[in-house]
Amino acid sequence: MAEAAGQNPLAAAIAEAMAALTPPEPSVDGRRMRAEANRARIVAAMLELISEGFMTPPAEAVAERAGVGLRTVFRLFNDMDSLYREMHAMMLARMAPIAAEPVLGEDWRERLRNLIRRRVRLFEEMMPFQVAADAHRARSSFLQKEHAHLVRLQRFSATALLPDEVQADPVVMEMVDLAMSFDAWRRLRLDQGQTYDKAEEIMAELVFRAIGQ
Questions:
Q1: Which of 11-15, 62-66, 78-82 has the lowest mean pLDDT?
Q2: Which CATH number does the domain housing residue 186 bear?
Q3: Model-level pTM greater than 0.85?
Q4: In the chain, how many domains are there?
Q5: Which end of the chain is more exposed for a tag (fewer CB within 10 A), N or C?
Q6: Which domain covers residue 76, as residue numbers?
């Protein structure tokens, strides 16, 4: 029970990913500093447009939102994986405060319920970017790698809280993993049209019924 012992595997994984993705300190050279500032504006513009429903924002819209020239967009991001990497890093930075919150509770049931509560907050924050990323994943080795990492992380952070007798049942573990997945949250929110609170309630109910509680 890693989180019960005060550890937070999700926060640790996000911190590790951010450290790997964070670019080196910009040079004192003015041109380099302007380029770094433009990159940050472009990434922020992409995320804003995606959050507004544009899964594949055109370069012209990105340039206008970022306040830079169209040539600057193409020059700074000459391949899509470099753009995905920086968008991913910015999303991790946004989610880090939520992920760092400890999962507390008097017993494993309460801790699991609080983990679900924290997890859906993360899912809701990452929803627009993740939906857009899924649409492009087949064409991006970076997005494929990060998707596999997200699936593993979701599974570990959920199952680490469960008692040994629950973990001993492989079918129950697969049910819990599925019920607490981003895919389940996206289905509830986007396809089934559930409100945030109702979707959280349904997810928790699914998890505890799978466990037999």
A1: 11-15
A2: 1.10.357.10
A3: no
A4: 1
A5: C
A6: 3-211
